[in-house]
Amino acid sequence: MAFLFRSKPKTDLVKTTKELLCVLLQEPASTKVKNDTTTALSALKLALMGSEENDVDSEVTEKWVNTLISQDVLFLLARGMGHMDIQGFVASQKILSFLIRWKPTNYTGSLDTPVVKHMVDTRPEITYWLCRGYDSNTAKSDRLPSHSGKVLREAIKFESVALTILYNQSLANRECASIKGVDMSAKQTGEGLFWQFFEWINKQTFEVAADCFNTFKDIITLHKQVAARYIMANFDLFFAKYHEKLVLSKSYVTKRQSIKLLGEILLDRANYEIMMKYVERGEYLKICMTLLKDDRKMVQYEGFHVFKVFVANPQKSDEVVKILLKNQSRLIRFLPGFLADRNEEDEQFRDEKNFLIRTIGVMADEKNPFAFINRSPEGTK
């Protein structure tokens, strides 16, 4: 397929690429089809992006982009990545990432680029299949998610794409839907695209899980107001899955990353309502207290930063007060020696720990406000 590298009209190259992608999706694709597809994609990348020696005129690029959109090649790229060889992954990732960012000269459209607008309004399936790169039933190689993930994180920088993921209730056997007209105040079922990330993170190899977690984090942190509204509307469902699948994961990396992210979410000013609702829950405090006793120090450390939010809250719920009082003596004995090796090197940690000890120490049962004065050394269980 060396002819692909010669100067050919864009319609010919796009037509050839589209035909190869369509054949590629008809499994099992032969090695020749995969090689030819990679060659075509390399030529397409060069035509779109140029090289160090040859720049591409913006007007020429615009014609390429319009042709690719009209021929539905962007969807075929996202859908077909799981069937390509490694060189095909790389070429597709670079093409899609470039197209997502690209704007015509003097572009006066919306905040979304032309390709992002196409992805959101016309072809939400593109986003869907990029997400499905994390599904072991879709990915034919562990290398695919790292490339589809790069494209996805590029797209998630745009709020409209994050909304597409959050509010798309489609399942694998249903057509994806545009977010136009979606009631964003309605509670989610837990079966949509976003909720699959909890499963993908928890059931993949280390490399895939780590990449998937990075994408998940971007979805719920890049666009703060959107994420805060979504989590509040689906509070119980979100944290039920977050605790079960992530915080209590058997994977050390997933566990540690998710606890750290939880602390960041709670301490972000944009999530004040979420924080106040979270720290009212006694069952969440119990989960957090078990993290302090984990046999891995970094899990303990990240758990501490969530635990301190419960203790520092001046408006503790009755449920939280009851748990802290029940464990008051134990906590006062436990905390001074908690991660003691950090005391010298981490002044802020030491000060926060001392603050928690003092705060817990002066807590008293409203029915017996002076009980803490004569509390027995053994405390309560």
What are the key terms here?
disordered C terminus; mainly alpha; elongated; 381 residues; single chain
Overall, the morphology is elongated
Strand composition percent:
under 5%
Helix content: 55-70%
* Structural class based on helices, strands and sheet pairing: mainly alpha
- Give the quaternary arrangement of the chains: single chain
Overall pLDDT, averaged?
Answer: 88
Poorly predicted parts: 1-8, 366-381
Query: In angstroms, what separates the terminal alpha carbons?
Result: 74 Å
What sequence of helices (H) and strands (E) makes up the elements? HHHHHHHHHHHHHHHHHHHH
**Whole-number radius of gyration?**
26 Å
Number of helices: 20
- Record field, number of beta strands: 0
Main β-sheet: number of strands, strand sense, barrel status? Answer: none
General description of the model:
With 381 residues, this protein is an all-alpha fold. It contains 20 helices and no strands. The protein has helices at 10-24, 31-49, 58-70, 73-80, 86-101, 114-121, 125-131, 144-156, 159-167, 196-202, 206-221, 224-233, 235-247, 252-267, 272-278, 282-292, 297-312, 318-326, 328-334, 347-361. The longest helix has 19 residues, at 31-49. The protein is elongated. The termini are far apart.
